[in-house]
Design goal:
heterodimer, A: alpha/beta, Rossmann fold, about 35% helix, B: about 75% helix, binds adenosine-5'-diphosphate, binds magnesium ion, transport (chain B), transmembrane (chain B), MetI-like_sf (chain B), MetI-like (chain B), transmembrane helix (chain B)
Chain lengths: ~260, ~280
């Protein structure tokens, strides 16, 4: 079953000063199946965040359709939870308060809220930290809390916009493994945006490779790795390297038409 | 907080020695509160003792303390103090009651804001005290007049700080709330109101500070009682120590207001949430 279907998506921004039209997304189409982990990969500035913001309902599209669980997207809603790069946790709420926020908004009774909050805090390894405020948590813990806050709300799809980009390399590896473990145990539907090839391949079932701006889908690459996945094992697998190489080649296709390569790691 | 010496440390691999006695003394709350005033009072005392100014112009701490004892005994100071504080209470109460909702309304409704902004700037420019002549015509020498001026003083900086605070709420927090299922009203109550608090707390502090000064000025002009009146009345009869006492009381009272109400409020909210940096790192 399809959880998210994007077809013929187009987006043009009007520059506030010059009044010029800028095409950010030319034509993007792909789908995400229920329980699937799909990454959208492309050089910085190619329009990944724009795609995610349109799916989230933060930004209006200029053309095409975005359908989530059979309904066209119109504005933000709890069926599409977002994990932000800047974590966007509520500073005045404890870890517990952040996790139950969505449940409170949707009128879930208190006893069930408590139960689910505990469950999801445990899931992301934050059991015992429920009374901490976000600023009292490490960067990695903050991102895991962001994931718990979204998953506790049981959205149709979890949207993640480069959630680990501003975290040190060591912790990032660990967080990617944590996310994989959570995904493997719960099988949420995930739409993940990144410019990091290894990250995309390690986490995803499929990788949507975008061209430089204005973005088009260059190709969609299946990741032939079994789950559960761990970094030390993945790095030793020829299939991992082969897939990453294939994705890199697709990105390198940009050299001919744009030269946005500098941002690709 | 660990103490860091400014000079490079010569000795290596030695266990840290316990802080010397004077350092521990300096860290106590009482010392932090009163310590800075020691040199000020010493200087004051010195200037008075050297008789730089004639005694009818400038008195020293002992005279002021004597006066304090006398006015406390007679019950004049407590009476005037409670009058001033009552006025401040009314002014601040109504100021907050009007300023906060109005501030949030102006901040949230773009049309209302476009309409109100010029008016806001216009009226903010009229000094609070400049209202006194007309207010006295309207309400006489009454509590209403003083309250009016106080409310006027507090409302404008408060409203401007609310608007600034609402603008500072990160867009991503609002987006996060919306995609967790919050409607516009819940976003306002759960995200915008607390999100604007660092700026609003600053506005309350500023407003209160202005209000406190306006109160004293109003009491001097309108006054029939209060600390401001006490000082002005003392000047009329040439009682300089009472004028000095009034000034000391004003400062001490503001300090107490800050220490007992404003600072604890900020510690329990915006500082607790890590939304502002603390002025003092804790010891
Ligand atoms: N609000 C906006 N107004 C105008 N141009 C924008 C806006 N948001 C993004 N863009 C432009 O669209 C392009 C894609 O941006 P973005 O989606 O943030 O890329 P990415 O997330 O892949 O780095 C960029 O060139 C950016 O300058
Ligand atoms: Mg981006």
């Amino acid at each position: 079953m399809t959880a998210l279907e994007i077809s013929g998506l187009r987006k043009t921004y009007t520059d506030d000063y010059s009044g010029e039209e800028v095409t950010a997304i030319d034509e993007v189409s792909f789908g995400v199946e229920k329980g699937e982990f799909v990454s959208v990969l492309g050089p910085s500035g190619c329009g990944k965040t724009t795609v995610l913001n349109i799916v989230a309902g933060f930004v209006d599209l200029s053309g095409g359709t975005v359908v989530v669980d059979g309904r066209p997207v119109a504005g933000p809603g709890p069926d599409r939870g977002v994990v932000f790069q800047s974590h966007a946790l509520f500073p005045w709420k404890t870890a517990y308060g952040n996790v139950v926020f969505g449940l409170r908004m949707r009128g879930v009774p208190r006893t069930e809220r408590d139960e689910r909050a505990r469950e999801y805090l445990d899931l992301v390894g934050l059991g015992g930290f429920e009374h901490r405020y976000p600023h009292e948590l490490s960067g990695g813990m903050q991102q895991r809390l962001g994931v718990a806050r979204v998953l506790a709300n049981e959205p149709a799809v979890m949207l993640m916009d480069e959630p680990f980009a501003s975290i040190d390399a060591q912790t990032r590896r660990k967080l990617q493994e944590d996310l994989t473990r959570i995904f493997e145990s719960r099988r949420p539907t995930v739409f993940f945006v990144t410019h990091d090839v290894d990250e995309a391949v390690f986490l995803s079932d499929r990788v949507v490779v975008l061209s430089g701006r204005p973005s088009r889908v260059r190709d969609i690459v299946e990741v032939p790795l079994s789950r559960p996945r761990r970094w030390d094992e993945a790095l030793a697998l020829p299939a991992f390297r082969a897939t990453a190489n294939r994705v890199n080649e697709l990105l390198a296709g940009d050299e001919d038409d744009a030269g946005h390569l500098d941002a690709v790691s | 907080m660990t103490t860091v010496s400014a000079k490079p440390v010569r000795t290596t691999a030695r266990p840290p020695r316990p802080a010397p006695l004077w350092r521990r003394l300096v860290r106590t709350g009482t010392f932090r509160t009163l310590g800075p005033f020691v040199p000020v009072i010493a200087l004051w005392w010195l200037v008075a003792a050297l008789e730089v100014f004639p005694e009818s112009f400038f008195v020293g701490p002992p005279e002021v303390v004597d006066k304090l004892g006398e006015l406390l005994e007679k019950g004049i100071l407590p009476g005037y103090l409670s009058d001033s504080l009552t006025r401040l209470g009314y002014g601040v109460g109504f100021g907050l009651l009007i300023g906060l909702p109005l501030g949030y309304a102006v901040a949230m409704l773009p049309r209302l804001r476009r309409f109100c902004w010029p008016i806001l700037l216009f009226f903010q420019a009229i000094a609070d005290i400049a209202w006194l002549p007309i207010v006295i015509v309207w309400f006489g020498f009454s509590l209403t007049s003083v309250t009016f001026v106080l409310v006027y003083t507090i409302v404008f900086p408060l409203m401007l700080s609310v608007v600034a605070g609402v603008e500072q709420v990160p867009r991503e927090l609002i987006r996060a709330a919306r995609s967790l299922g919050a409607g516009r009203w819940r976003v306002f109550l759960e995200v915008i109101v607390p999100g604007a608090l660092p700026s609003v707390a600053g506005g309350i502090r500023t407003g209160l500070g202005y209000g406190w000064r306006a109160l004293v000025a109003a009491e001097i002009i309108v006054g029939t009682s209060g600390v401001g009146f006490m000082m002005f009345d003392a000047r009329r009869v040439g009682d300089i120590s009472q004028v000095f006492l009034g000034m000391a009381v004003l400062g001490a009272l503001w300090y107490a207001l800050d220490a007992l109400i404003l600072a604890p409020f900020e510690r329990a909210t915006v500082e607790r949430w890590g939304m502002v940096r603390r002025l003092e790192a804790d010891g």
